[in-house]
Amino acid sequence: MPDSRLPGDPAPPLPPPGRATIADVARAAGVHASTVSRALNPATRGMVTEAVALRVAQAAERLGWRPSALAAGLRTRKSRTIGILVPDLVNPIFPPIVRAAETLLAAQGYATLVANTDNDPAREEMLISRMAEHLVDGLMLASAAEGTRAIELCARWSIPAVLINRRLPGVATSAVTNDDRHGIGLAVGHLVALGHRRIAHLAGPPGVSTAIDRREGFFEALRAAGLEPAAVVDASGYTRAAGQVAMQALLAGPSLTMPAFTAVVVANDMLCLGVYDVLQGCGLLAGADLSVTGFNDMPFVDLIDPPLTTIRIQHAAMGREAAEALLAEIAEPATPRRDTRLTPELIIRASTRAAKQES
Amino acid sequence: MPDSRLPGDPAPPLPPPGRATIADVARAAGVHASTVSRALNPATRGMVTEAVALRVAQAAERLGWRPSALAAGLRTRKSRTIGILVPDLVNPIFPPIVRAAETLLAAQGYATLVANTDNDPAREEMLISRMAEHLVDGLMLASAAEGTRAIELCARWSIPAVLINRRLPGVATSAVTNDDRHGIGLAVGHLVALGHRRIAHLAGPPGVSTAIDRREGFFEALRAAGLEPAAVVDASGYTRAAGQVAMQALLAGPSLTMPAFTAVVVANDMLCLGVYDVLQGCGLLAGADLSVTGFNDMPFVDLIDPPLTTIRIQHAAMGREAAEALLAEIAEPATPRRDTRLTPELIIRASTRAAKQES
DNA sequence: TGAGGCAATGCAATCGATTGCAGAAAATGC
DNA sequence: GCATTTTCTGCAATCGATTGCATTGCCTCA
């Protein structure tokens, strides 16, 4: 295949219009391939005479040469590729994160591999292995589930990694998350200021760092306000369906004659959709009959009915910071790990209203 | 890979640290590297004795060998990687497409590079070049803009490509799109059935295939119903802001005393958000005062106020079909190009109501 | 003028897997 | 029992770029 010419055939024509290699450029510029390599690589351009660099650059341009990331990567053991693992790209909190990360990485010359884990540990491991095969320079793990072996796998393949959105207990890995405690505090503070005294919490799935922190933040903020939690129920996942189930459980709580609470602090916007579903089913109106707060300010919750009061997290900043942390670790593996907490912000909309006067 | 462990199951032990190459496996199994290669590759396993294959497999397992996608790709000129270009991953119609494609591709052993073009031709070309450098086996182009050189670039690098969501005039490239004409027809038919006679169209940006098809579909359906279009305005892009501007233009139309239309067929859901904004600003209510239909049924338009009547497209099927078409072309470049139109479906919600009796 | 120093370039090995070809071994045919 | 296939395995080249080391040429300075 390399050269199937028969003896006597004319010499092969100039590099085919498809693909020029560094050797082709070398021939065209009248220098050795290694010189071409040095001339074309900004980092080593200094090792080459100005004139040669120019001649090589022109030859490369003329031949339409493009580097082969595979060949370079094979030699340097760097693919200039970063992997991003998300549980489910359709969950609207992830696209902004991925997008921000991808944009920053692209500007630094990195390509981005994206994959969905479906929260399935086996699938996650398979994907990490595959990314390792592709020799990704780093991995961004969004919402790694508890008990995941992702970190061990990254260590096994020596892939720098950064956690996004969720932390993992006891692992020395950089993470970019939200200050969940503070965020929930904002929600509770807002409700208290509106006069609510019986406040419930619809918590996230146990074992997930965001759920734990928000749960604890809830108790803490309530205590600070001198109140007792009216009710707490854990959702089984961050889904609309889980929100429905949990909300039903909350409403079916101890007091059957009247709701035991006037407001509910929900651990996440997606759960709120389920909460809205249940309220609608009961003929209740969020805001008017029961104040509801969410978390994330995911896209379009400003458009639902009623617009959701929620805690806005810095989606894009999360992706950016994580990408930066990762690049820092790639450039200098000895970089100390960082645990970045982004400060969230209270967004007041119509799903929270002043508590009715207690009669 | 058929490892579908349940959470809690004991995880298989991690292979020993370090990185084994095919040569290491060869040494361990007492055979030549080329034999290892053949034994490990399912396609060539048959060239090797059963016993040798087993011995090699065990050695590979024991050493924790993983293939190097870079090395293999360099040699075979196939990276087992597919690129997906979207204008903006944050636009909610894309995540379902990307996700479906990624899932199918992952099952076939492909990794997926995702990048955002921001509708910027220069950026798009840069990204395609970069993907070419990474030797992607194929490219999925979601919503390629008119006048893009993407197709030429793919041809230049001989990268099989498939268009998603939008077609491009005059290019012989497979495409998976929606039957936009039919979809708009459903919307018009629905409004006509509700008694509307003065129907306007808020069209998409000129030059974009979806906008053109929907525009034409609108005229066609109206003609079929024996009606004249009440008004038509083009939006400058598929964005909420463009929707606002276009809606204002529609309302400021010829008749200043009364709206010249009782219903508006909008080219896309995102534009509808702008339409809602304007209506709200005028104290008008979608549904009650003016019927509105969208297109795409993007996530969460069922939750906005009022829930949007729209045309549901098959997001996931679009990603899947496109991935399949692409894989077919990769496997057999002579595969005839296909132009797949997916049939959309009318989803009736509260933004459309029976026309008020004309007095 | 010749030794020493330095800068620019060439040489060749290397990264890890694949594959055409050739040789060895085993199976088959006559 | 020998020639001929058919299997199976090994050898070595190859993919395209990078890089440590060797070489060349030029400049400087004694």
Automatic annotation (TrEMBL), chains A, B:
**SUPFAM superfamilies on file:** lambda repressor-like DNA-binding domains, Periplasmic binding protein-like I
Q: What InterPro entries does the database record attribute to this sequence?
A: HTH_LacI, LacI/GalR-like_sensor, Lambda_DNA-bd_dom_sf, Peripla_BP_I
Q: Which Pfam families match?
A: LacI (PF00356), Peripla_BP_3 (PF13377)
- Enumerate the spans annotated as HTH lacI-type domain: 20-76
Keywords tagged on the record: DNA-binding, Transcription, Transcription regulation
Molecular function as annotated in GO: DNA-binding transcription factor activity; transcription cis-regulatory region binding
Name this polypeptide is given: Transcriptional regulator, LacI family
